Amino acid sequence: EPEVTQTPSHQVTQMGQEVILRCVPISNHLYFYWYRQILGQKVEFLVSFYNNEISEKSEIFDDQFSVERPDGSNFTLKIRSTKLEDSAMYFCASTRGAPLTNHNEQFFGPGTRLTVL
Amino acid sequence: AQKITQTQPGMFVQEKEAVTLDCTYDTSDQSYGLFWYKQPSSGEMIFLIYQGSYDEQNATEGRYSLNFQKARKSANLVISASQLGDSAMYFCAMRENLSGGYNKLIFGAGTRLAVHP
Prior knowledge:
The structure holds 2 protein chains of 2 kinds.
Chain A: E1 5-7, E2 10-13, E3 19-24, E4 31-37, E5 43-50, E6 53-57, E7 65-68, E8 75-79, E9 88-95, E10 107-108, E11 112-116
Parallel strand pairs in A: 2-11
Antiparallel strand pairs in A: 1-3, 3-8, 4-5, 4-9, 5-6, 7-8, 9-10, 9-11
Chain B: E1 3-5, E2 10-14, E3 19-21, E4 24-26, E5 33-39, E6 46-52, E7 60-61, E8 64-69, E9 74-79, E10 88-97, E11 103-107, E12 111-116
Parallel strand pairs in B: 2-12
Antiparallel strand pairs in B: 1-4, 3-9, 5-6, 5-10, 7-8, 8-9, 10-11, 10-12
């Protein structure tokens, strides 16, 4: 069964360093998302991406964040200068078709746990 | 703004018993979707069940069923015949429709379910 994959599973970094979190969405999916879950809290939307551009972003997704689809398979989230409060689990998700035409389940990857020291 | 409320931070149930996890939502949209995800201690998000706002029947997926009461804006998850492996965090989520046809998921705070032998 196709699945969303994410690497690395756990990333430890020093405050102020840049990190890139990688995701490989399901191959025939067209819409891509990043979500964040701070430990013990709810999952929060960060950004959605379609047709090589951001379609929506939350207030969390400030200038320190960027997303990219550098090739036909990878979808990356970059944090330019990490802060302590960026420590969280980051989930990538993808969906298949036009969002309003069907239930359009978002398939989640296993997450990357980011720890900023 | 859309909102999801899960009022039970923790629940426990005896193995083989049924349990209901509560979820209420608030939206002004006529068309929306409601999802339940399971998050075991390993951290991944596992899709369980979906209910569309226009679906007349309550959704069922194996031991999972969704008690959808549209007038009350509630979408409670019922797990029948609980198993030890059902111990996890459970998140209710709603699809928020964005401009341009895109969407994102809004999550509740979650309910931690413990199944006792």
